[in-house]
Design a protein that fits this description.
InterPro entries: PyrdxlP-dep_Trfase (IPR015424), PyrdxlP-dep_Trfase_major (IPR015421), PyrdxlP-dep_Trfase_small (IPR015422), Ser_HO-MeTrfase (IPR001085), Ser_HO-MeTrfase-like (IPR049943), Ser_HO-MeTrfase_PLP_BS (IPR019798), SHMT-like_dom (IPR039429). The chain is α/β, with parallel strands linked by helices. The chain has 19 helices and 17 strands. The structure holds pyridoxal-5'-phosphate. Pyridoxal-5'-phosphate (PLP) binds next to α5.
Length: 452
Protein backbone atom coordinates (compact mmCIF):
# COMPACT_ATOMS: atom_id res chain seq x y z
CA UNK A 1 0.00 0.00 0.00
CA UNK A 2 2.91 2.36 0.67
CA UNK A 3 3.74 1.92 -3.01
CA UNK A 4 0.27 3.18 -3.92
CA UNK A 5 0.57 6.01 -1.40
CA UNK A 6 3.75 7.23 -3.09
CA UNK A 7 1.77 7.74 -6.30
CA UNK A 8 -1.55 8.92 -4.86
CA UNK A 9 -2.09 9.21 -1.11
CA UNK A 10 -5.79 9.90 -1.74
CA UNK A 11 -6.36 6.44 -3.16
CA UNK A 12 -4.22 4.75 -0.49
CA UNK A 13 -6.28 6.56 2.16
CA UNK A 14 -9.54 5.38 0.58
CA UNK A 15 -8.34 1.77 0.53
CA UNK A 16 -7.43 1.95 4.23
CA UNK A 17 -10.71 3.69 5.03
CA UNK A 18 -12.64 0.93 3.24
CA UNK A 19 -10.73 -1.70 5.22
CA UNK A 20 -11.68 0.13 8.41
CA UNK A 21 -15.33 0.43 7.28
CA UNK A 22 -15.55 -3.28 6.42
CA UNK A 23 -14.04 -4.18 9.79
CA UNK A 24 -16.32 -1.98 11.85
CA UNK A 25 -19.64 -2.70 10.10
CA UNK A 26 -21.56 -5.91 9.75
CA UNK A 27 -21.65 -6.80 6.09
CA UNK A 28 -25.16 -8.07 5.36
CA UNK A 29 -25.39 -7.12 1.69
CA UNK A 30 -26.63 -10.31 0.05
CA UNK A 31 -24.41 -9.88 -3.03
CA UNK A 32 -21.14 -9.26 -1.14
CA UNK A 33 -18.58 -11.46 0.53
CA UNK A 34 -14.96 -11.54 1.72
CA UNK A 35 -12.65 -13.15 -0.86
CA UNK A 36 -9.56 -14.97 0.38
CA UNK A 37 -6.09 -13.48 0.34
CA UNK A 38 -5.12 -16.07 -2.32
CA UNK A 39 -7.91 -14.76 -4.56
CA UNK A 40 -6.85 -11.16 -4.00
CA UNK A 41 -3.18 -11.85 -4.68
CA UNK A 42 -3.94 -13.81 -7.85
CA UNK A 43 -5.87 -10.75 -9.02
CA UNK A 44 -3.52 -7.95 -8.03
CA UNK A 45 -0.47 -8.51 -10.17
CA UNK A 46 1.32 -8.22 -13.53
CA UNK A 47 -1.19 -10.40 -15.39
CA UNK A 48 -3.19 -7.20 -15.85
CA UNK A 49 -0.57 -6.15 -18.41
CA UNK A 50 -1.41 -8.87 -20.95
CA UNK A 51 -3.80 -8.76 -23.91
CA UNK A 52 -5.41 -12.05 -24.96
CA UNK A 53 -8.42 -11.43 -27.23
CA UNK A 54 -9.86 -14.70 -28.48
CA UNK A 55 -10.06 -17.96 -26.53
CA UNK A 56 -7.38 -20.46 -25.42
CA UNK A 57 -5.04 -21.40 -28.29
CA UNK A 58 -7.00 -19.17 -30.67
CA UNK A 59 -5.85 -15.62 -29.93
CA UNK A 60 -5.56 -12.38 -31.81
CA UNK A 61 -2.35 -11.57 -29.90
CA UNK A 62 1.12 -13.08 -29.58
CA UNK A 63 2.62 -14.45 -26.37
CA UNK A 64 -0.58 -15.79 -24.81
CA UNK A 65 0.74 -19.20 -23.65
CA UNK A 66 0.47 -18.36 -19.96
CA UNK A 67 -2.98 -16.81 -20.28
CA UNK A 68 -4.03 -19.91 -22.27
CA UNK A 69 -2.99 -22.08 -19.32
CA UNK A 70 -4.75 -19.83 -16.80
CA UNK A 71 -7.99 -19.60 -18.77
CA UNK A 72 -8.06 -23.30 -19.55
CA UNK A 73 -7.46 -24.21 -15.90
CA UNK A 74 -10.17 -21.86 -14.65
CA UNK A 75 -12.67 -23.24 -17.19
CA UNK A 76 -11.75 -26.83 -16.24
CA UNK A 77 -12.31 -26.11 -12.54
CA UNK A 78 -15.65 -24.47 -13.37
CA UNK A 79 -16.80 -27.53 -15.36
CA UNK A 80 -15.67 -29.85 -12.58
CA UNK A 81 -17.27 -27.81 -9.79
CA UNK A 82 -20.66 -27.44 -11.47
CA UNK A 83 -20.70 -30.56 -13.65
CA UNK A 84 -21.00 -28.37 -16.76
CA UNK A 85 -20.19 -29.33 -20.36
CA UNK A 86 -18.60 -25.97 -21.23
CA UNK A 87 -17.39 -22.92 -19.30
CA UNK A 88 -16.34 -19.46 -20.40
CA UNK A 89 -14.50 -17.57 -17.65
CA UNK A 90 -13.97 -14.31 -19.55
CA UNK A 91 -16.94 -12.06 -18.68
CA UNK A 92 -15.82 -9.10 -16.62
CA UNK A 93 -19.05 -9.07 -14.62
CA UNK A 94 -22.46 -10.65 -14.26
CA UNK A 95 -23.93 -8.10 -16.66
CA UNK A 96 -21.29 -9.04 -19.26
CA UNK A 97 -21.97 -12.73 -18.73
CA UNK A 98 -25.65 -12.14 -19.48
CA UNK A 99 -24.84 -10.09 -22.55
CA UNK A 100 -22.51 -12.81 -23.81
CA UNK A 101 -25.15 -15.46 -23.16
CA UNK A 102 -27.89 -13.47 -24.91
CA UNK A 103 -25.79 -13.02 -28.04
CA UNK A 104 -24.61 -16.62 -28.02
CA UNK A 105 -28.22 -17.81 -27.85
CA UNK A 106 -29.29 -15.39 -30.59
CA UNK A 107 -26.38 -16.45 -32.79
CA UNK A 108 -27.07 -20.14 -32.24
CA UNK A 109 -30.86 -20.14 -32.44
CA UNK A 110 -31.92 -17.44 -34.84
CA UNK A 111 -31.75 -18.71 -38.38
CA UNK A 112 -29.94 -16.45 -40.76
CA UNK A 113 -29.73 -18.62 -43.88
CA UNK A 114 -27.44 -16.47 -45.98
CA UNK A 115 -24.89 -16.34 -43.15
CA UNK A 116 -24.45 -20.10 -43.05
CA UNK A 117 -21.10 -21.19 -44.37
CA UNK A 118 -19.79 -17.66 -44.60
CA UNK A 119 -17.49 -18.06 -41.60
CA UNK A 120 -16.33 -15.28 -39.33
CA UNK A 121 -13.85 -13.74 -41.75
CA UNK A 122 -16.51 -13.29 -44.43
CA UNK A 123 -19.06 -11.56 -42.24
CA UNK A 124 -18.03 -8.27 -43.79
CA UNK A 125 -19.13 -9.46 -47.23
CA UNK A 126 -22.87 -9.38 -46.58
CA UNK A 127 -24.71 -6.53 -48.21
CA UNK A 128 -26.16 -3.54 -46.35
CA UNK A 129 -29.68 -4.85 -46.97
CA UNK A 130 -28.78 -8.27 -45.53
CA UNK A 131 -27.16 -6.62 -42.52
CA UNK A 132 -30.33 -4.59 -41.89
CA UNK A 133 -32.47 -7.73 -42.12
CA UNK A 134 -30.12 -9.56 -39.77
CA UNK A 135 -30.41 -6.80 -37.18
CA UNK A 136 -34.20 -6.81 -37.47
CA UNK A 137 -34.41 -10.57 -37.02
CA UNK A 138 -32.15 -10.51 -33.99
CA UNK A 139 -33.92 -7.50 -32.47
CA UNK A 140 -37.42 -8.98 -32.66
CA UNK A 141 -36.83 -12.02 -30.51
CA UNK A 142 -38.76 -12.44 -27.28
CA UNK A 143 -37.34 -12.69 -23.77
CA UNK A 144 -39.46 -13.79 -20.81
CA UNK A 145 -37.76 -13.12 -17.48
CA UNK A 146 -38.57 -12.43 -13.83
CA UNK A 147 -39.99 -8.97 -13.20
CA UNK A 148 -37.64 -6.51 -11.50
CA UNK A 149 -40.10 -5.96 -8.63
CA UNK A 150 -40.34 -9.70 -8.05
CA UNK A 151 -36.57 -9.91 -7.59
CA UNK A 152 -35.36 -10.11 -11.20
CA UNK A 153 -32.18 -8.31 -12.22
CA UNK A 154 -31.85 -5.18 -14.36
CA UNK A 155 -30.22 -7.25 -17.10
CA UNK A 156 -33.30 -9.48 -17.36
CA UNK A 157 -35.18 -6.96 -19.47
CA UNK A 158 -35.62 -3.95 -17.17
CA UNK A 159 -36.82 -1.04 -19.27
CA UNK A 160 -33.67 1.07 -18.88
CA UNK A 161 -31.24 -1.80 -19.50
CA UNK A 162 -29.81 -2.67 -22.89
CA UNK A 163 -31.48 -6.11 -22.63
CA UNK A 164 -34.83 -4.36 -23.10
CA UNK A 165 -33.54 -2.83 -26.33
CA UNK A 166 -32.12 -6.10 -27.62
CA UNK A 167 -35.31 -8.09 -27.07
CA UNK A 168 -39.05 -7.79 -27.19
CA UNK A 169 -39.33 -8.20 -23.41
CA UNK A 170 -42.06 -9.84 -21.31
CA UNK A 171 -41.93 -10.63 -17.62
CA UNK A 172 -43.48 -12.97 -15.10
CA UNK A 173 -44.02 -12.03 -11.47
CA UNK A 174 -44.43 -13.71 -8.09
CA UNK A 175 -47.93 -14.38 -6.82
CA UNK A 176 -49.30 -11.24 -5.17
CA UNK A 177 -50.58 -13.07 -2.07
CA UNK A 178 -47.77 -15.53 -1.42
CA UNK A 179 -44.77 -13.71 -2.91
CA UNK A 180 -43.80 -17.05 -4.49
CA UNK A 181 -43.39 -18.13 -8.13
CA UNK A 182 -46.38 -19.94 -9.56
CA UNK A 183 -45.19 -22.28 -12.31
CA UNK A 184 -48.65 -22.87 -13.80
CA UNK A 185 -49.04 -19.13 -14.37
CA UNK A 186 -45.55 -18.91 -15.89
CA UNK A 187 -46.42 -21.81 -18.18
CA UNK A 188 -49.61 -20.12 -19.32
CA UNK A 189 -47.73 -16.92 -20.05
CA UNK A 190 -44.96 -18.76 -21.90
CA UNK A 191 -47.53 -20.55 -24.07
CA UNK A 192 -48.96 -17.20 -25.12
CA UNK A 193 -45.67 -15.40 -25.62
CA UNK A 194 -43.55 -18.22 -27.05
CA UNK A 195 -40.25 -16.57 -26.12
CA UNK A 196 -36.88 -17.43 -27.61
CA UNK A 197 -35.44 -17.30 -24.08
CA UNK A 198 -37.11 -18.23 -20.81
CA UNK A 199 -34.90 -16.66 -18.14
CA UNK A 200 -34.86 -17.80 -14.51
CA UNK A 201 -32.78 -16.41 -11.67
CA UNK A 202 -32.92 -13.45 -9.33
CA UNK A 203 -31.29 -10.78 -7.21
CA UNK A 204 -33.91 -10.68 -4.50
CA UNK A 205 -36.08 -13.79 -4.28
CA UNK A 206 -35.83 -15.71 -1.02
CA UNK A 207 -36.95 -19.12 -2.26
CA UNK A 208 -35.64 -22.00 -4.36
CA UNK A 209 -36.57 -22.29 -8.03
CA UNK A 210 -37.65 -25.62 -9.50
CA UNK A 211 -35.50 -25.70 -12.64
CA UNK A 212 -36.87 -29.06 -13.76
CA UNK A 213 -40.29 -27.45 -13.99
CA UNK A 214 -38.86 -24.38 -15.74
CA UNK A 215 -37.19 -26.64 -18.33
CA UNK A 216 -40.47 -28.46 -18.93
CA UNK A 217 -42.08 -25.08 -19.63
CA UNK A 218 -39.23 -24.08 -21.94
CA UNK A 219 -39.48 -27.37 -23.85
CA UNK A 220 -43.22 -27.01 -24.22
CA UNK A 221 -42.82 -23.68 -26.02
CA UNK A 222 -39.51 -24.39 -27.77
CA UNK A 223 -37.58 -21.82 -25.69
CA UNK A 224 -33.99 -21.85 -24.54
CA UNK A 225 -33.83 -22.05 -20.73
CA UNK A 226 -31.27 -19.57 -19.45
CA UNK A 227 -30.56 -19.40 -15.71
CA UNK A 228 -28.78 -16.51 -14.03
CA UNK A 229 -27.47 -18.00 -10.78
CA UNK A 230 -25.37 -14.93 -9.91
CA UNK A 231 -26.71 -14.90 -6.37
CA UNK A 232 -26.82 -18.58 -5.54
CA UNK A 233 -23.87 -20.06 -7.49
CA UNK A 234 -22.14 -20.82 -4.18
CA UNK A 235 -25.17 -22.77 -3.01
CA UNK A 236 -25.12 -24.81 -6.24
CA UNK A 237 -21.35 -25.34 -5.95
CA UNK A 238 -21.71 -26.33 -2.30
CA UNK A 239 -24.42 -28.89 -3.04
CA UNK A 240 -27.19 -27.07 -1.15
CA UNK A 241 -29.33 -26.75 -4.27
CA UNK A 242 -29.62 -30.31 -5.52
CA UNK A 243 -31.92 -32.29 -7.83
CA UNK A 244 -34.56 -30.11 -9.47
CA UNK A 245 -33.14 -27.06 -7.66
CA UNK A 246 -29.76 -27.37 -9.36
CA UNK A 247 -29.98 -25.44 -12.67
CA UNK A 248 -26.99 -27.08 -14.38
CA UNK A 249 -28.63 -30.29 -15.65
CA UNK A 250 -31.74 -28.45 -16.84
CA UNK A 251 -30.63 -25.10 -18.28
CA UNK A 252 -29.17 -24.73 -21.76
CA UNK A 253 -27.08 -21.76 -20.61
CA UNK A 254 -26.22 -20.66 -17.07
CA UNK A 255 -24.62 -17.36 -16.14
CA UNK A 256 -23.23 -16.20 -12.83
CA UNK A 257 -21.10 -13.68 -11.05
CA UNK A 258 -18.07 -15.03 -9.22
CA UNK A 259 -18.04 -12.61 -6.29
CA UNK A 260 -21.25 -13.30 -4.37
CA UNK A 261 -21.92 -16.64 -2.63
CA UNK A 262 -19.14 -18.14 -4.79
CA UNK A 263 -16.65 -15.93 -2.89
CA UNK A 264 -14.30 -15.21 -5.78
CA UNK A 265 -13.07 -12.05 -7.50
CA UNK A 266 -15.52 -9.54 -9.00
CA UNK A 267 -16.39 -11.10 -12.36
CA UNK A 268 -18.67 -13.32 -14.42
CA UNK A 269 -18.89 -16.81 -15.85
CA UNK A 270 -21.01 -18.60 -18.47
CA UNK A 271 -21.69 -22.34 -18.35
CA UNK A 272 -23.47 -24.06 -21.22
CA UNK A 273 -24.36 -27.17 -23.11
CA UNK A 274 -21.90 -27.95 -25.92
CA UNK A 275 -24.36 -26.68 -28.53
CA UNK A 276 -23.58 -23.09 -27.46
CA UNK A 277 -19.80 -23.50 -27.15
CA UNK A 278 -18.88 -22.16 -30.60
CA UNK A 279 -20.91 -19.00 -30.18
CA UNK A 280 -19.63 -18.44 -26.64
CA UNK A 281 -16.04 -18.87 -27.78
CA UNK A 282 -16.76 -15.85 -29.97
CA UNK A 283 -17.45 -13.72 -26.87
CA UNK A 284 -14.83 -11.59 -28.54
CA UNK A 285 -15.84 -10.06 -30.96
CA UNK A 286 -19.56 -10.57 -30.08
CA UNK A 287 -19.56 -8.42 -26.96
CA UNK A 288 -16.04 -8.50 -25.49
CA UNK A 289 -12.62 -7.12 -26.16
CA UNK A 290 -9.68 -8.50 -24.21
CA UNK A 291 -10.32 -10.71 -21.17
CA UNK A 292 -8.80 -9.87 -17.77
CA UNK A 293 -6.07 -12.48 -17.23
CA UNK A 294 -5.51 -11.47 -13.60
CA UNK A 295 -9.20 -11.90 -12.80
CA UNK A 296 -9.34 -15.24 -14.65
CA UNK A 297 -6.41 -16.38 -12.45
CA UNK A 298 -8.32 -15.28 -9.35
CA UNK A 299 -11.45 -17.08 -10.62
CA UNK A 300 -9.37 -20.27 -10.92
CA UNK A 301 -8.22 -19.88 -7.29
CA UNK A 302 -11.79 -19.29 -6.06
CA UNK A 303 -13.18 -22.22 -8.05
CA UNK A 304 -10.46 -24.50 -6.63
CA UNK A 305 -11.35 -23.28 -3.14
CA UNK A 306 -15.01 -24.03 -3.85
CA UNK A 307 -14.09 -27.61 -4.79
CA UNK A 308 -13.00 -28.25 -1.18
CA UNK A 309 -15.15 -30.06 1.44
CA UNK A 310 -14.95 -26.91 3.63
CA UNK A 311 -16.84 -24.97 0.99
CA UNK A 312 -19.75 -27.43 1.21
CA UNK A 313 -19.98 -26.77 4.94
CA UNK A 314 -19.74 -23.04 4.30
CA UNK A 315 -22.60 -23.15 1.77
CA UNK A 316 -24.84 -25.07 4.18
CA UNK A 317 -24.06 -22.65 6.99
CA UNK A 318 -24.94 -19.62 4.81
CA UNK A 319 -28.50 -20.94 4.50
CA UNK A 320 -28.79 -21.98 8.15
CA UNK A 321 -27.64 -18.50 9.14
CA UNK A 322 -30.10 -16.80 6.78
CA UNK A 323 -32.93 -18.89 8.24
CA UNK A 324 -31.84 -18.14 11.81
CA UNK A 325 -31.53 -14.42 11.11
CA UNK A 326 -34.93 -14.28 9.38
CA UNK A 327 -36.52 -16.17 12.28
CA UNK A 328 -34.85 -13.82 14.78
CA UNK A 329 -36.21 -10.76 12.97
CA UNK A 330 -39.67 -12.30 12.68
CA UNK A 331 -39.68 -13.18 16.39
CA UNK A 332 -39.04 -9.50 17.10
CA UNK A 333 -42.03 -8.33 15.10
CA UNK A 334 -40.55 -7.64 11.66
CA UNK A 335 -42.48 -8.84 8.61
CA UNK A 336 -40.46 -11.23 6.45
CA UNK A 337 -41.59 -11.52 2.83
CA UNK A 338 -42.83 -15.10 2.15
CA UNK A 339 -42.31 -15.82 5.86
CA UNK A 340 -38.71 -16.99 5.60
CA UNK A 341 -36.00 -18.14 3.21
CA UNK A 342 -34.56 -21.20 1.44
CA UNK A 343 -31.35 -19.48 0.41
CA UNK A 344 -28.82 -16.86 1.49
CA UNK A 345 -31.15 -13.86 1.59
CA UNK A 346 -34.47 -12.61 2.84
CA UNK A 347 -36.57 -9.45 2.58
CA UNK A 348 -38.09 -7.35 5.36
CA UNK A 349 -41.14 -5.18 4.74
CA UNK A 350 -40.22 -1.99 6.66
CA UNK A 351 -43.12 0.00 5.17
CA UNK A 352 -45.19 -1.86 7.79
CA UNK A 353 -43.26 0.20 10.38
CA UNK A 354 -44.08 3.46 8.61
CA UNK A 355 -40.63 4.01 7.08
CA UNK A 356 -39.09 3.55 3.65
CA UNK A 357 -36.34 1.10 2.78
CA UNK A 358 -34.04 4.03 2.18
CA UNK A 359 -34.56 5.43 5.68
CA UNK A 360 -33.94 2.01 7.23
CA UNK A 361 -30.84 1.40 5.10
CA UNK A 362 -29.30 4.76 6.09
CA UNK A 363 -30.14 4.46 9.78
CA UNK A 364 -28.74 0.93 9.98
CA UNK A 365 -25.51 2.00 8.30
CA UNK A 366 -25.13 4.75 10.93
CA UNK A 367 -25.63 2.07 13.57
CA UNK A 368 -22.92 -0.21 12.14
CA UNK A 369 -24.96 -2.51 9.89
CA UNK A 370 -24.48 -2.43 6.11
CA UNK A 371 -27.34 -3.83 4.06
CA UNK A 372 -29.36 -2.54 1.18
CA UNK A 373 -32.87 -1.33 0.56
CA UNK A 374 -34.86 -3.28 -1.98
CA UNK A 375 -38.14 -3.04 -3.80
CA UNK A 376 -40.68 -5.59 -2.70
CA UNK A 377 -43.12 -7.32 -5.04
CA UNK A 378 -45.67 -4.77 -6.30
CA UNK A 379 -43.85 -2.07 -4.29
CA UNK A 380 -45.78 1.24 -4.18
CA UNK A 381 -42.58 3.08 -3.14
CA UNK A 382 -40.70 2.27 -6.35
CA UNK A 383 -37.03 1.29 -6.81
CA UNK A 384 -35.45 4.38 -5.21
CA UNK A 385 -37.24 4.76 -1.86
CA UNK A 386 -38.53 1.18 -1.65
CA UNK A 387 -40.53 -0.58 1.06
CA UNK A 388 -38.00 -3.25 1.88
CA UNK A 389 -34.60 -4.33 3.09
CA UNK A 390 -32.62 -7.18 1.57
CA UNK A 391 -30.44 -9.06 4.02
CA UNK A 392 -27.87 -11.74 3.18
CA UNK A 393 -25.52 -13.94 5.15
CA UNK A 394 -22.64 -14.95 2.80
CA UNK A 395 -20.16 -12.46 4.29
CA UNK A 396 -20.93 -12.92 8.00
CA UNK A 397 -20.77 -16.69 7.44
CA UNK A 398 -17.29 -16.31 5.95
CA UNK A 399 -16.35 -14.57 9.22
CA UNK A 400 -17.30 -17.78 11.03
CA UNK A 401 -20.57 -16.57 12.56
CA UNK A 402 -23.27 -19.11 13.42
CA UNK A 403 -26.91 -19.18 14.58
CA UNK A 404 -26.16 -17.57 17.98
CA UNK A 405 -24.61 -14.52 16.37
CA UNK A 406 -27.57 -14.33 13.97
CA UNK A 407 -29.89 -13.90 16.94
CA UNK A 408 -27.73 -11.05 18.23
CA UNK A 409 -27.76 -9.40 14.80
CA UNK A 410 -31.55 -9.77 14.62
CA UNK A 411 -31.77 -7.92 17.95
CA UNK A 412 -29.65 -5.04 16.58
CA UNK A 413 -31.67 -4.77 13.35
CA UNK A 414 -35.02 -4.92 15.14
CA UNK A 415 -34.08 -2.34 17.76
CA UNK A 416 -32.86 0.11 15.10
CA UNK A 417 -35.87 -0.36 12.81
CA UNK A 418 -38.28 0.04 15.73
CA UNK A 419 -36.64 3.32 16.74
CA UNK A 420 -36.39 5.12 13.42
CA UNK A 421 -38.54 8.24 13.37
CA UNK A 422 -39.34 9.18 9.80
CA UNK A 423 -39.30 12.86 8.93
CA UNK A 424 -42.17 13.31 6.53
CA UNK A 425 -42.40 13.43 3.75
CA UNK A 426 -39.15 11.87 2.70
CA UNK A 427 -40.08 12.03 -0.94
CA UNK A 428 -40.58 15.79 -0.73
CA UNK A 429 -37.00 16.15 0.41
CA UNK A 430 -35.62 14.97 -2.91
CA UNK A 431 -33.31 12.15 -3.77
CA UNK A 432 -30.16 13.38 -2.00
CA UNK A 433 -30.45 11.96 1.50
CA UNK A 434 -32.86 9.91 3.58
CA UNK A 435 -34.63 11.94 6.27
CA UNK A 436 -35.16 10.36 9.69
CA UNK A 437 -34.10 10.55 13.32
CA UNK A 438 -32.50 7.82 15.37
CA UNK A 439 -31.77 8.23 19.09
CA UNK A 440 -28.07 8.63 19.94
CA UNK A 441 -28.48 5.94 22.60
CA UNK A 442 -29.59 3.33 20.02
CA UNK A 443 -26.83 4.36 17.65
CA UNK A 444 -23.99 3.99 20.14
CA UNK A 445 -25.27 0.77 21.67
CA UNK A 446 -25.68 -0.82 18.19
CA UNK A 447 -22.24 0.28 17.09
CA UNK A 448 -20.80 -1.13 20.31
CA UNK A 449 -22.51 -4.52 19.81
CA UNK A 450 -21.30 -4.68 16.19
CA UNK A 451 -17.69 -4.08 17.23
CA UNK A 452 -17.95 -6.72 19.97
N1 LIG B 1 -27.41 -11.07 -12.42
C1 LIG B 1 -27.90 -11.04 -11.18
C2 LIG B 1 -29.00 -11.99 -10.82
C3 LIG B 1 -27.40 -10.14 -10.24
O1 LIG B 1 -27.92 -10.10 -9.01
C4 LIG B 1 -26.35 -9.26 -10.62
C5 LIG B 1 -25.78 -8.29 -9.69
O2 LIG B 1 -26.23 -7.96 -8.67
C6 LIG B 1 -25.90 -9.33 -11.93
C7 LIG B 1 -26.44 -10.23 -12.82
C8 LIG B 1 -24.87 -8.36 -12.44
O3 LIG B 1 -23.63 -8.58 -11.92
P1 LIG B 1 -22.51 -7.45 -12.03
O4 LIG B 1 -22.83 -6.45 -11.00
O5 LIG B 1 -21.24 -8.20 -11.77
O6 LIG B 1 -22.57 -6.92 -13.42
Amino acid sequence: LSQVAMVTPEIARSIVAELEAQRTHLKLIASENFSSLSVQLAMGNLLTDKYAEGFPYHRFYAGCENVDAIEETAARYACELFGAEYANVQPHSGADANLMAFWAILSTKVEVPYLEGLGETNLYKITDAQWKELKERLGNQRLLGLDYYSGGHLTHGYRYNVSARMFDVYSYAVNKETGILDYDTIEKQAMEIKPLILLAGYSAYPRKINFKRMREIADKVGAVLMVDMAHFAGLVAGGVFEGEYNPIPYAHVVTTTTHKTLRGPRGGLVLAKKEFADALDKGCPLVMGGPLPHVMAAKAVALKEALSPEFKKYARQIVQNAQALAAGCQKRGLEIVTGGTDNHLFLINVARKGITGRQAESALRECGVTLNRNSLPYDPNGPWYTSGLRIGTPAVTTLGMRENEMDEIAEIIASVVENIKPLFSEKDNGPSKAKYEIAEKIKTSSQQKVIE
